[in-house]
Each structure stands twice: as structure tokens, then as C-alpha cells.
Amino acid sequence: MKLFADFPENYELIDAGGGRKLERWGTVTTIRPEHQAYFGAVLSKKQWTQLADWEFIPKKEGSLQGNWKKLNPLASEEWLFQSAGLVFNLKITNNKHLGLFPEQQINWEFLSENLNASKRFLNAFAYTGAASLFGRKTEAEVVHCDSVKTMLDWGRQNQSASGLDGIKWVHEDALKFIRREVKRGNKYDMVQLDPPAWGLGAKGEKWKLEELLGTLIGEALQLVSKSGILILNTYSPKVDIPFIQQIAKELGISNKQLTNAELWFKTTSGKELYYGIVTRINQL
Fold this sequence. Notes:
Elements: E1 2-4, E2 11-17, E3 20-25, E4 28-33, H1 45-51, E5 54-58, E6 66-70, E7 78-83, E8 86-91, H2 105-114, E9 120-124, H3 130-137, E10 141-146, H4 149-161, E11 168-171, H5 174-184, E12 188-193, E13 198-200, E14 206-208, H6 209-221, E15 224-234, H7 241-250, E16 258-266, E17 272-282
Parallel strand pairs: 1-16, 4-5, 9-10, 9-12, 10-11, 12-15
Antiparallel strand pairs: 2-3, 3-4, 5-6, 7-8, 13-14, 15-17, 16-17
Helix pairs in contact: 2-3
InterPro entries: Glyco_hydro_b (IPR013780), SAM-dep_methyl-trfase (IPR019614), SAM-dependent_MTases_sf (IPR029063)
Keywords: Methyltransferase, S-adenosyl-L-methionine, Transferase
GO molecular function: methyltransferase activity
């Protein structure tokens, strides 16, 4: 099933193609690599360059690391992006990411509709905390966990800029924290997992999502209270819907509990771009 996300307020995916995507983030427009954009773009390269303020040039194909090329001499390196009453600090770094994943609008809406002051929400692998802010905006109790301290600091800046407070910030490996919470007997009404496809831990431990996904889901489900929901976002080429369905079957998760959908954006120019899989598991 294809699930098309709406653009967040003040964001626009203008065009995509030729392994790149053209995006507007409020007042700043960028060109970034996108391996899912294997088709031709609608707008010309000249039009892209005229519209864009920055273009990311990776060190090598597929790398997150690289350099940003300034196409507009007046372009800002840091700016505030406002959406749905929240404020996010976006900035140019040596990474292609700017501090926000706009396709997550689909989950932000879900959190906004299903959380309230009586609920507890755990956001794990939480990056710069957009989901945490949307959760806290509902007055829910929010725990934000990420293993990278700079991401927690960035999240705190977003919290402050948005006029919020009260988020609990946890600097720890997400899976380790989840296991600790299980041992403590803690429960959450909503748990969101946004794990990377691969990576290295603080002590050099190798993380491969396809090898650890079953363990991660199994552990996280133990934290979800009765009638609660586990949200999982996956972006790995080795993890597709049948793969997730098989893991669910092995964990004893029924079809009634499980929903999977491919996440897509439609560009303003009319192209369709794939952004991974959104999974929701209802705790019965």
C-alpha cells in the first residue's frame, strides 16, 4: 500500500530526478542527492540552479558526508523553519541532512491526534526531536532517546525555540535504553522507533538493521501499554514489507495488530518519490 504524506507547512518538494531532489524549507531551497530519484526531472538543470540556494556535493556516491556548494551568495547557513506552530533550527553542516525529515509529517499528524496530557511517549533513535516536539505539544509526557549528544543538544534548541519544556532527554544507545526500561517495568502509550539502516556504536559495535530488527521490535513491544501503539520507520533496502511481516509472524504479532505502508511524497512537479516503510503495531 502506498501512503502519500502531505507536505508540512512551509516545506515543498519541488521536483526530483537524476539522483537528486529540489526542496524548499521556508525561505531556503536546497538540492540534495536522492538515490530513489532514478527517473528524469521535470524542471531543467538551469531551473534547479536558479531556484536553489545550496547544493550538497557528497564525498563519494551514496555518502552522507560532503560539502555544500553555495548557489546564492546571500544564502543563510542557519535559519528557523516554522511548521504547525513549532520552530526548528535548520543548518548547513558537513552532512546532507539539515535537521528535519519532512516525510515524517505522516507520523507527526498521528502523534498529534493520538497523544494527550494523560499519555506517555518514547521517541527512540530520535535525531533532532521533531516527533518529540509534536508529542510534547499535546502535553504528553515525552522521553527522547538518542546516542549522539549533538543531536540531543539540537533537539533542546528546537524545544526552546518552540516555547516548550518538559521533554526528558536521554543520551544513550536506544536499544540499551529500551532494555533498561523493560527491566524497570516502565510502560508507554506510544513508542516510535526510527533506527538507521546501518552504523557503528560508541564502542565500534556494528549495527545492521536487518539483523537486529526482530530483537528491536520484540524488546520495544514490551514497553507498549495495553491498547498502545508502536511506530516503526525503516529506510533500508534490505528491509521491505514481506521482511517485516515475517518478523511479526515470528514474534506472534497478528495481522489484526499490524499495518505496513510504503511512504511516498508527490513532488509539486508531479513525480512520486519513495521514502521507506511506516509500520504500526497495536498492542492488544
